[in-house]
Amino acid sequence: MNKMILTEAKLFLREPGGPIFAILLPLALLLGLGSIPGFQTADPALGGQRVIDTQLPGMMVLLSVVTMALTALPGTLVAYRESGVLRRMSTTPVRPVRLLVAQVVNNVAVAVVATALLIALGNLVLGVAVPRSLLAFAGVFLLGSASMFGLGLLIAAVAPSAKAAPGIGSLLMFPLLFMAGMWVPRELLPDLAQRIGDFLPMAPFAQALRDTWAGHAPQPLHLAVMAATVLVTGVLSARLFRWE
User: What is the pTM of this model?
Assistant: First the structure.
């Protein structure tokens, strides 16, 4: 398994456009938007806290994860299926499922690197505090990432072609990001939109990241929604995934 992960990592790095985009875009947005004076001013709508302390860091972590999970991963897996890689592997002692695991591990590793850079540079450059509940933050990150990559595997299972897979991921990603508060803080959304978002997989992930970053415990509902997403997408992906 380790050899498979290493091999896929080497192939992964031969075309580093996706990983670099997933790392640099959230980082550039954090540093760029964080330098806007209005984002450094206490906002009564956010409990008297700054946008840069409450909204931006967690949302940028979310953006790095979903970029890899909903666009990069499905596109690669469907391309492997189209080119016959998965079919050929099914005739060897190396089971294709190992390739799926290796791909998920490498994509998660990119999200981890992006998150570490966001925390470090956000603190050094903008004075954003590191997550106050670090262990809880790590747990939420892993659970939320599992839910997002579960969605990515489901997209890979049903996408008709490698070209269509990233498009399907993007079509799903942008409405979910809106409900999660990417462009408008969730506190400013209508109550109905906030309530609907609580039962979608991305908003609970975003809110749990924000909560643990601020040192608060994540809400049980949000943890339950993320766990349910992992379970449902895992079952559906296993039933629908085609190796050829």
Answer: 0.87
